[in-house]
Structure prediction request, 225 residues.
Amino acid sequence: MSQRPSQWRVLLETQWTWTRGILLLGSIVAFTVPLVSLETAAGAADAASAKEVAFIGTMQAWSIGYALTAAGIGLLIAIAAWSYDHRLRHVYALSLPIARWRYVLQRYTAGLALLALPTLALLAGAELAAHSAAVPATLHAYPLALTLRFAFATLVAYSIFFGISSATARTAGYVLGVIALIIIAQVVLSSAGSGVNVIGRVSDIVFATPGVLAVFSGRWTLIDV
Prediction:
């Protein structure tokens, strides 16, 4: 008699079905970013007199590429994890003979397991770039450190948007409303000639160390001194 698959395995398979397009596209982007950044940096170094300085500067400029890729993958996978539940008004979840918190935990960890695919793709691309002959001999590559940071950033984005997406549309509206109020407050203060920078303060709190999104800021350098 064949053994029935576990509930977690079923959730994993269904989330893979829902998100495989996003995961494959995200994995391709994650694999490509280190290689494209290396090619761009090598071209900038060839055109400059201070080759190492130009190479490092160009590699550092690609930090936004890694951060946006991690944030985008985490966001999309988190939203997709709950899209069908919201569409079916959570009938499937309520029909299962398990506690709600256990169902949420299983859905969260299933999505978390799928995030390994783009992370491994980034590691493969970073390793290929690190062992390229285009890397100046005086510089060092840090593919593992970059991959660990990418994995943590993806985890942070996924966790935040998983929590937001698991709630009702009203909760998501509240989050967007708070963001809109911050922007409106900044516009009003600027129009009144005030020197208060609300967005700057919020950005410092959120993105500066030890802010919750501090991992997305700073340097994401694959090749450095």
User: Anything to note?
Assistant: The CA atoms of residues 1 and 7 lie 18 Å apart. The mean pLDDT is 81. Residues 7-168 form one domain. The chain has one domain: 7-168.
